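Tokens as discussed.
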């Protein structure tokens, strides 16, 4: 929040908009790191320390263990997003004091929806982390692969947009990178679609089809990852 305030102070354009933009980027980064660290602690370290045996000793299916851990991750993520979101509102108001904005930021429904889609982004990464934890024998692997997954999934959309932009540089790179990205986009979700900050920054709302399609994409990927995690964890042999 301090970085967002300083960015607004040194900006030559609307300070509230700059503070909000920088703050939302920070929330996406912090939320990603938190969800990956919690995923490692909730599942990976429990398997490494063998404390998972106490949970598996209960007369309940193993799927309840993973689903419970996942829901705990999402609850903690929601609390973190809510807390950071409230702090960001205060930062934006403080940064915009005494400045008349031509296009005021929207800190109402648009802001809440933007934070909800950030949480949905975190939920997708958490589902991938749970899946890796279910099959991994190294506690740090979910953190490393989860970070790589998040960076790749968030960069997929902008990379494809650039290659298809029609510029001379893009045309030179299409032959080398476009076939690979065309394949990757069937394996990874496009998490850049869950970044809808223009709605709260400039009032540029995406269409209902875009919002619903992005949410369905994320929920479908979460379902696939959790299903794979439950299938692998149910058949895993613990020594």
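Sequence:
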């Amino acid at each position: 929040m301090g970085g967002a305030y300083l960015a607004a102070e040194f900006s030559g354009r609307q300070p509230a908009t700059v503070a909000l933009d920088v703050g939302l980027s920070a929330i996406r980064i912090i939320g990603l790191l938190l969800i990956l660290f919690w995923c490692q602690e909730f599942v990976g370290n429990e398997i490494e320390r063998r404390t998972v045996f106490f949970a598996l000793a209960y007369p309940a299916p193993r799927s309840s263990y993973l689903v419970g851990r996942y829901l705990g991750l999402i609850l903690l993520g929601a609390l973190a997003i809510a807390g950071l979101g409230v702090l960001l509102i205060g930062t934006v108001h403080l940064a915009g004091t005494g400045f008349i904005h031509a296009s005021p930021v929207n800190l109402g429904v648009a802001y809440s929806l933007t934070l909800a889609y950030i949480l949905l982004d975190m939920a997708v990464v958490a589902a991938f982390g749970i899946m890796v934890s279910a099959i991994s024998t190294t506690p740090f692997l979910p953190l490393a692969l989860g970070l790589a997954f998040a960076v790749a999934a968030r960069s997929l959309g902008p990379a494809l947009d650039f290659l298809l932009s029609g510029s001379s540089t893009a045309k030179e790179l299409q032959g080398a990178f476009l076939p690979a990205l065309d394949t990757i986009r069937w394996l990874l979700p496009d998490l850049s679609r869950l970044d809808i900050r223009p709605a709260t920054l400039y009032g540029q709302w995406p269409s209902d089809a875009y919002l619903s399609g992005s949410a369905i994409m994320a929920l479908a990927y979460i379902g696939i990852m959790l299903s794979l995690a439950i299938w692998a964890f149910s058949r895993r042999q613990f020594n």
